[in-house]
């Protein structure tokens, strides 16, 4: 006589949670088609499967997308704003910040191993976007390069408000000389999303370039990063 199947009744074996089957289907689909085929919401849900092991995460992913608008913006959101989403506790938010740091490190390592000025603008823009595009405050950072255009250092020089960062050209050049850099790429973000430079951005860039040139330090570009794009001041012949 064949053994009876367990009955899912009170006091007997409980059925597995519905989300377990869904997670397995998501995993199998990822293995088959890869992350590029996932929508932002689907990819965010897959990430949440890793950091939240024992609950349905679809509703959390949808709430994050409704609040932040994209996968990248959700992962890069400040911890205090992530904590406002139901289901995201302190530990989970910490795990998401680790994933963000890993993505930023991956992008930085791609930039560090290549000739920035000649052959890796796509990698550079990916790096800039990962680092800065979704910050809620302006920051001004500099990539210091050697004579082979390899990265010496990437440093945030100033952090400001939502629409202003104070920059002191002589301090920029002083730091370049300390690092023996022979070229610079200037970077800053516009939290408003609009990457078009202001008059102050242009004047500041020209001041840095004017001080740098007699010292043998080239300013390769000043890139302004917005959520939906970037502007190259060099390509626009603004300095």
Characterization of the model:
- The protein has 239 residues and is an alpha+beta fold.
- The chain has 2 domains: 18-104, DNA polymerase, domain 1; 115-232, Cytidine Deaminase, domain 2 (3-Layer(aba) Sandwich).
- The protein has 10 helices and 5 strands.
- A 5-stranded mixed β-sheet has the order 2-1-3-4-5, with helices on both faces.
- A hairpin with a 2-residue loop joins strand 4 (218-226) and strand 5 (229-232).
- Helix 2 (40-51) packs across helix 3, helix 6 (90-112) packs antiparallel against helix 8 and helix 9 (169-178) packs across helix 10.
- The longest helix has 23 residues, at 90-112.
- The chain is elongated.
- The termini are far apart.
> What's the end-to-end separation, in Å?
87 Å
Question: Judging by the overall fold, what is the CATH architecture of the largest domain?
Answer: 3-Layer(aba) Sandwich
DSSP, total strands: 5
Kindly name the structural category.
alpha+beta
What distinguishing features does this structure have?
239 residues; alpha+beta; DNA polymerase, domain 1; Cytidine Deaminase, domain 2; 2 domains; five-stranded mixed sheet; 10 helices; 47% helix
Give a short overview.
The protein is α+β, with helices and mostly antiparallel strands and 239 residues long. The protein is built from ten helices and five strands; from the N terminus they run ααααααααββαβαββ.
